[in-house]
Amino acid sequence: MRASILICLLISAGGMLWACFARIPIYVNGFALLVRTGNNLELPSQTEGEVNHNFTTKNSDTSITDQKIYKFSRQDLKLNPAQTEELIDTVMAIRDRETMQQKDFGTSKVREGSLLAWINDPSAFTLLKQSLDTYRIKKTKLEAKQQEISRSNQNLSKKIKLLKKQTQLQYKFFQAVKELNIEGIASRALLLEEEAKVDALLNQILTEQDKLDANKDALILNKTDHNQAAIKLQTAIRAHIDKTLIFAEHDLFVTDILAPNLTQVSHKDSIFRISKQKILVPTENIPGFLSQRSAQQVRAGMKVLATPTGMSRAQHGGMLGVVTGVKMLPSSNNDLTKILGSEAIASDLTGLIPEPIQVTIQLEQDPANQGTSKQGIKWSSSGEIPYPVKRGDLLRLQITTQKVTPISLLLPWARKLSGSTPPSPVLSETSSPTR
To answer: Under CATH, what is the fold of the domain 22-38+279-418?
Structure first.
């Protein structure tokens, strides 16, 4: 009996000590994305079709052909009509290239102007081919017209030259008749007749000269039509390049492949995730997001546990980090797109947290995890994780805002139960939190 009483006293004393001295963490939850803050961008498709990868880190230098296409698309390269036709044939031949399935990426720089991928869109290809065929038909007609005008000009020039010679001879004869008329040998009727012949030849020369001038105007108009047709062709090829070819617009690293090689994509589907810097360094800051009520409780220096969605936190824990900053105002969709690099991800996030507040989180580095599935990031558990973490993973956040003793949680309930303090007013879900 005494032993039982003693055990009960010990248990009670232990419980009291735990209630007074133990520390229970209080958490708020949110989400984060495993990317560098402001250094994440997704390259979307501008059409629908089959995506074909073209980049390789083993040969990161862009080819001369691809560089030429890239410069032309950015209007940094001027081409004449013949060169434009040649470029179009080159672009159309890209469909026959062997695709490159890149497995190792993120560590080698891809140079500006490199062709990362092309989208096999039959309708866009057909439209470009029709534009080229239309141009070539018009060019053939214009060239035929140009040759016709050139032949006509040659004939007119010869005829004018001959008429001028005839005019000179006729004028000499007219002068001779004029002298004879003065001497009274030739009649005035003959003089007027010869003068009329000279005038007729001069009028004929003027008529042929007008025809020659009209041909010159027609030739200028012909060249103008040809130039306009060439401009339309260049507009069509630039539109095709912008729609179906995905270039590296600056030196970059491909950090993730979002659309595997030879898969179907739709308009605005993301193909690659890219970065201006190398792969994510664990000590870099990543963006996190909280509801406005949760963000009010968070300060810099608070500890963070970040677990990839789909992974059990109870079984595998999460990545350790610390809050380094909290924004004061909610992030708009435009702000989120700039931070996350994707309009789709920004939209998904606002679906999870309306009007989210951004927090900046610094992950802890663990050299012992380098080269493992934990990617050099310190975890709360020492065991293996079911799959590697990768850039772009969505993380579930658990931020420790404070640690309290169990008795401090129990006392308000006990006072309320005993009636010594009035019950606190309950905030409705729709009420706005006071700042």
So the answer is: Elongation Factor Tu (Ef-tu); domain 3 (2.40.30)
